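Sorry to interrupt, but I need a hand with the structure work. Could you add the entry underneath, on a fresh line?
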Amino acid sequence: MTIHAISGYHAASETLADKQLSQSLYDEGAVIMADVLLVLHGAPHRARRGLELRVFRRDFFRYYEHEVFPATLAQSMGAHAERGHADLIDLGYGITMNLTADFAGVDRPRGDADETAQLRRLTATFSEGATLVHSTRDKEVVRAEVRAALAEFDATFYRPSMQRRRDLLARFAAGEITEDALPRDVLTVLLRNEDKVEISPDLMMREIAFYLQAGSHSTANATTHAFHDVVTWCAEHPEDDRRIRSDPLFLQRCVHESLRLHPASPVAERRPVCPMALSGGAHATPADRVVVEMAQANRDTTVFGPDADVFNPHRVLPEGIPPWGLTFGTGVHTCLGRDLDGGMQARPDTDPATHQYGIVPLLVKALLDRNARPDPANPPTRSSHTERPNWGTYPILFDH
């Protein structure tokens, strides 16, 4: 087996878009990730992605940003702001997990703190299982924890959520309710189209668990990175502090720059489905691995300038280069939640009043509006159970 490393921005972009390469980063995490949308390839991937894209339309993102998110934010952040302190990792997970549960199709009938804590714990376990390739813990121990968490999730959250949707779909088929009364989420779409995709009951459950962890894990981490980058920049560039707090388009640009520097995974891995020539001319076979160094590609000085390694929201980019680089991927495996997390890229004629900003920029704005700042007495720490450069704790204070 040969490992082919791809690090330049353009070579990485071309490699990620190559349909002769299948996803392989999550092979270690098959306990939860086997055959979920992210790892499918070819016709099965196109079929399931086509169905699930029905949920991820632009009007859906606008609905979540303007209707669902404000209520979730007020409920989750209000109590922390009143107390005057929080850990941003837990706060971010709590907010994003509830949002992700809504579009995945996971009901929380009680809506109390204990229920949220239980789902948060299960989601964290799913995330560790999905990213097992980068775990520093005993992998068999993690797999056992994931199996137990999936069984608990199935009994407590998934099966009741599935049954409620089946009942609603039966009522819809009988003409008792209109389509507007059906939940707008991934689980409902899958249940309505079971005859169009090959998906077992166990896989459907894991598909929903995958959405739950993928959305909350990446969004919570991205929010923490972005908040850290923004407050650090403001401390060093006080002339931008007022603009960041008053100009939401500039704040979104700051978040996009942070997303570029901190992709959810520092690498992507692919496996050739047939003998092929890679970008640059190297020959690869199905026995080989192709490692796309995302973090390095996003810091390519020939694309992002000589200061590509540092946070600079005033960065001028070449035509056609997104400000977040390759963080959301490209090609058939582009992240479905890109516009939900980062919003739409602003243009010179963008109207700030109607623009879609994305959940991460709105979360950072909400923190700044409440005068959140890092706790000087409790500095943040890096996560110790993964090789990914994530924060493990990030204590913050709210100044009233």
